[in-house]
Amino acid sequence: MMTPLWLLLWLLPAVGVAAPPPHGGQLVDFSLIVASCFRGDTVALAVNGQDLVANTMATSDFNSGVTALNVYQNREGLWVRTGSQLTRCPRLDLRQGLHLRFVLNGQVSRHVVNVRKGRVVFVNACYEVAGTGASIRKVTVQQYKKTVALY
Predict the structure, then answer these.
(1) What is the pTM of this model?
(2) For the chain, which end, N or C, has fewer CB atoms within 10 Å of the first or last residue's CB respectively?
(3) Does 11 fall in a domain?
């Protein structure tokens, strides 16, 4: 069975760039989207030591494959969107990249993101087959240099 993310990546070349970004079209320093394989999971997120999201429920949308949780930074500040709520936070210093601390149902994972390799960051929590043949859930980070269209 194909996960929504694989389907998105498979269709991406055909879809192209569309849909205005959630930040009104302004240039962004980075955009972080909590994306695929979330089903009623409790998540928390800290970026560069700043707690942004604590104990929030995340469920990936069946059609778009992403949750209603995203973070982006533009010249006006750092913005955290959870559903219809938008919260402004102080801007982050990105010279050392993004140091993510992501908590999925109590399990902590850490990731370092170099924004020069892509300013659009997806966090996924899909199942992968381990070397033993068992299915394990793994939090992964993917980066893109261009806007990703989600339909």
Answers:
(1) 0.79
(2) N
(3) no
